[in-house]
Amino acid sequence: MAQMGSWGEPALFLATIINQLPIVSVFVPTEPVYVYLGTQLPQGGWTSLLICMLGAWIGAQGSFWLGRTAGARVLARMNAAPAAMARARRLFERRGAPFVVLAQLIWPIATLSQVLAGAWGMRPATYLAVSALGAPLAVLQYAAIGYVSASGLAALGLAPDEPLLVLLGPYRLLIGLALLLLIGWALILRRAKHALPLRIAYAALLALAMFGAVNLGTLTGRTDAAGRLAPLPLDLACRALDETLIARAGETPLHAAQPVNLALVGFDAPASLLEGLGWLRNRTYAGGDLEPTDILRLTYEGLPPASSVLLEGIATDLAWQKERGVVPRMQLRLWPVAVPTGVPPIYLASVGRIDAVTLRLGGRLPLPVLAYDLFPFTDSARNREAEAITRAIPGADWRLLGPSALPGEESQFESDGRIAVLRAPGAPALPEICGGAASARASATTRG
């Protein structure tokens, strides 16, 4: 599970306290953080959530005592509507403690209710008790949003289907989000004159942040594929000569399925070879240990983490991209193959161009999921990279093998379905290796 360690639990604790204080709480909206923590609950992570509950309870005491010692001045700064205050006063006088508990669950009046409890004379001991119930419930309701959303996405499947919106580049998206944030903050700073626009803008920003938290939490939390990091069996590599293998989206929904279209035979250090050709190594979700700050930093640097793509249920932690950037970019993944002693190293690979970031409907219900769009004409990328790799090593060669068409259900690739087999100098051809492996199996069966 991706922990909150990079943010620091003390910083999270402090932010949660500030979020409970009047006026300044709008500048530290921690609700999306609670949503994110909820997405992590299937993998554990109660420690950070408990810290948030404690911080919310302590912050609630601060609001209560501000109301008790300077209630009139604080309420004047909060600019609450007189009619709403009158209704709240009547509810407080009739219901008292239940009103305070329930009010803490409602974002627009949560902090106000804590100040009112102090200003209207609730006993400190009573407030200690009711806030000990209300503050944790206020945190848990947002965590429940994250938990239910992540669990629902997992249960319904994360494979993207119909596109909703194709973003031509992440920088346009970032600029749009920055403008939205600036407009929201401008309205917040002018809240005394624009109460209704402020509420609309702030609610929209919170909803957007929570949507982002669910997507981010789903990605960082679902790194179970790390347990399936293993070499591919040789039989699977040999099947690529007879059928087109398809690598499918794993626990992270960012990538569509893609054909396996390269094989490297006899290359002892493919990582060094690719880096020498200018390819840049990607961290992967399958490798685990990715925190939200890592994802944002790497994406900003133009090296976004590679999502989990599984070949027959096996993930790979070997991913590269051709140059810095997010969209479009060339990406290559390598799966090592388990070979017997005396057989040269074999790697299966999938190479293609990511063309766009897409907001899609994922699963059996129309739930929005972020995904990458793969350029459907994968053959040109396959042939170009096969040529570049073999040209870099004197004596190396490559040729196309395998079937002449993809299975019908994978027709969106617009590919011939073949695999480019690259052979290092002196290495046997893949058909020879597979023929030898088949002979060895047949011999073992006969002896048995």
From TrEMBL:
<feature type="transmembrane region" description="Helical">
    <location>
        <begin position="200"/>
        <end position="219"/>
    </location>
</feature>
<protein>
    <submittedName>
        <fullName>Uncharacterized protein</fullName>
    </submittedName>
</protein>
<feature type="transmembrane region" description="Helical">
    <location>
        <begin position="48"/>
        <end position="67"/>
    </location>
</feature>
<feature type="transmembrane region" description="Helical">
    <location>
        <begin position="171"/>
        <end position="188"/>
    </location>
</feature>
<dbReference type="Pfam" id="PF14067">
    <property type="entry name" value="LssY_C"/>
</dbReference>
<feature type="transmembrane region" description="Helical">
    <location>
        <begin position="12"/>
        <end position="28"/>
    </location>
</feature>
<keyword id="KW-1003">Cell membrane</keyword>
<keyword id="KW-1133">Transmembrane helix</keyword>
<dbReference type="InterPro" id="IPR032816">
    <property type="entry name" value="VTT_dom"/>
</dbReference>
<feature type="transmembrane region" description="Helical">
    <location>
        <begin position="99"/>
        <end position="120"/>
    </location>
</feature>
<feature type="transmembrane region" description="Helical">
    <location>
        <begin position="140"/>
        <end position="159"/>
    </location>
</feature>
<keyword id="KW-0472">Membrane</keyword>
<dbReference type="InterPro" id="IPR025902">
    <property type="entry name" value="LssY-like-C_dom"/>
</dbReference>
<dbReference type="GO" id="GO:0005886">
    <property type="term" value="C:plasma membrane"/>
</dbReference>
<keyword id="KW-0812">Transmembrane</keyword>
<dbReference type="InterPro" id="IPR051311">
    <property type="entry name" value="DedA_domain"/>
</dbReference>
<feature type="domain" description="LssY-like C-terminal">
    <location>
        <begin position="255"/>
        <end position="415"/>
    </location>
</feature>
<feature type="domain" description="VTT">
    <location>
        <begin position="28"/>
        <end position="147"/>
    </location>
</feature>
<dbReference type="Pfam" id="PF09335">
    <property type="entry name" value="VTT_dom"/>
</dbReference>
